[in-house]
TrEMBL record:
Keywords: Hydrolase, Lipid degradation, Lipid metabolism. One of its GO terms (cellular component) is cytoplasm. The keyword Hydrolase applies. GO terms for biological process: lipid catabolic process; phosphatidylinositol metabolic process; phosphatidylinositol-mediated signaling; release of sequestered calcium ion into cytosol. InterPro entries: PI-PLC_fam (IPR001192), PLC-like_Pdiesterase_TIM-brl (IPR017946), PLipase_C_PInositol-sp_X_dom (IPR000909). Its EC number is 3.1.4.11. Residues 10-154 form the Phosphatidylinositol-specific phospholipase C X domain. This is Phosphoinositide phospholipase C. It catalyses: a 1,2-diacyl-sn-glycero-3-phospho-(1D-myo-inositol-4,5-bisphosphate) + H2O = 1D-myo-inositol 1,4,5-trisphosphate + a 1,2-diacyl-sn-glycerol + H(+). The keyword Hydrolase applies.
Length: 154
């Protein structure tokens, strides 16, 4: 393993869209996408491995609590709140560059509001609430500008 690969030596001042971003698909799954367990700890694992974009599939859960799982399968369900708390704890241990939550939203308006409430409560000032007009990608902020921030992509 080349120790230089652990160091950032690229220019991190370019717009975010100029970079390849280490991303995880079905991050919550501990195994196959039909029958396996969903686990909040999977987010801790991939973030510590250097992943900067994680997938969160959100569905309406019981008692007004949104859950994360692979829809229309037998994968187990975990609370969105637990996922957000795990991401908050592990997001910036490996590095300070932004973490993107790729949210696949299947929730009712009521539970979407609950998700927004948890995002604000759990991430606080780390949550990037600035809006970007997507017409011109050159106007996107850079990874350097977004250090320590959680971005939401829906």
């Amino acid at each position: 393993s080349n120790p230089l690969h652990r160091e950032v030596h690229q220019d991190m001042e370019q717009p975010l869209c100029h970079y390849f971003i280490a991303s995880s698909h079905n991050t919550y799954l501990s195994g196959d996408q039909l029958l396996s367990q969903s686990r909040a700890e999977m987010y801790a694992r991939v973030l510590q491995a250097g992943c900067r974009c994680v997938e969160v599939d959100c569905w309406d859960g019981p008692d007004g609590e949104p859950v994360v799982h692979h829809g229309y399968t037998l994968t187990s369900k975990i609370l969105f709140r637990d996922v957000a708390e795990t991401i908050n704890k592990y997001a910036f241990i490996k590095n300070e560059f932004p973490v993107i939550l790729s949210i696949e939203n299947h929730c009712s308006i009521q539970q979407q509001k609950k998700i927004a409430q948890y995002l604000k409560e759990i991430f606080g000032d780390k949550l990037d609430l600035s809006s970007v007009i997507t017409g011109d990608p050159r106007q996107l902020p850079s990874p350097q500008d977004l250090k320590g921030k959680i971005l939401v992509k829906v």
